[in-house]
Amino acid sequence: MYRYIQQFGNLEPSQLDLIAGSGREIFLKKDSYFSQAGKIPREVGFVIKGIFRGCYYTDEGEDITRCFIAENSMVCDYLNFESENFSSEYIQALTDCRVIVFNKYQWEELSRNVSGWDSIKNKMVQACMYQKSRKGPVISKDAASRYLDFLKNFPLVINRVPLSYVASYLGITQQSLSRIRKNIQ
Fold this sequence. Notes:
By secondary structure, this protein is α+β, with helices and mostly antiparallel strands. The chain contains eight helices and eight strands; from the N terminus they run ααββββββαββααααα. The chain is globular, with a radius of gyration of 17 Å.
């Protein structure tokens, strides 16, 4: 968590300790949800260990993966967390996960107690929202190029999550992904 926060601004070790001490550590089992569609997100967190995916279901019931969230990242449906609105998406643990979480009160208290926190928080939120707002890879690229981009952007993910989620993220079938992987190796 410290390393992630320090990417967005410099804080003193005592400030980082205050931040860490304000949250609480939780463990989520594989396939459980950090946030669910139809519910108001109540926490924001930092992924210490594990991988999440942001996903939604189409009207036809198709499961679409929008993003992956791995270690040293912020995890949250931030717009709905801040506005206390119902989420339309899920954030699902793809592995067993360890997360430092903050409820709304704790999150807001950091702004009052940590000098410079608001600027850092805003940059972290922008990075989180950018990652989550991506509707998947650029479809104008061919599937093999999208897969190679995925490997570059998510090197810690490929061997730790089901290929069906990778294929969904890339906008291709699992069979196409298998062919691409075979041809690249």
